[in-house]
Amino acid sequence: MKAYLALIKIDLKLALRNRSALFFNLMFPLIFFFIFAQAFHAEQSGVINLVVAQVATIGVIGNGLFGAGMRAVQEREANILRRYKVTPITPVPLLVASIITGLVIYLPYIALMLFLANRIYHMPVPEHLGSMFLFIALGVSAFRGIGLIVASVVNSMQESAILVQLLYFIMLFLSGASFPVEMFPSWLQNVTQFVPATYLVQGLQGILFRRESLLRNGASVAALAVTMMVSTFVAAKLFRWEKGEKIRSSAKLWVLAVLLPFMILGGFQAYSKENVEKAKIDTRILRRSQSRLIRNARIFVGDGSVLESGSVLIREGRIAQVYDGPGPDPKSLNADPIEAAGKTILPGLTDMHVHLVAPGGIPDDKYMPTAKVFERALAAYLYSGITAVKSAGDPLDIALAARAAVNTGHRLGAEFFTVGPLFTAEGGHGTEYFERVPKAVRAAAMAAFVRTPKTPAEANEQVDALKKAGVDGIKAVLESGTDKHTFNRLDVNLLRAIVDEAHAAGLPVTTHTGESRDFTDALNAGTNGIEHGSMRDRIPPEEFARMAKSGVFYDPTLSIIEGFQQMSQGNKDLLNRSLVEQVGPKNLLASTRKAMATKSQFDNPLSMDDAKANLLAAWKSGVMLVTGTDAGNPLVVHGPTVQRELELWVEAGIPPSVALKAATGNAAKALCAEKRFGNVRKGLEANLLVVDGNPLQDIHAVSSISFVIFKGERVDRSSLFDQE
Question: Under CATH, to which class is 349-676 assigned?
Answer without folding.
Answer: alpha beta
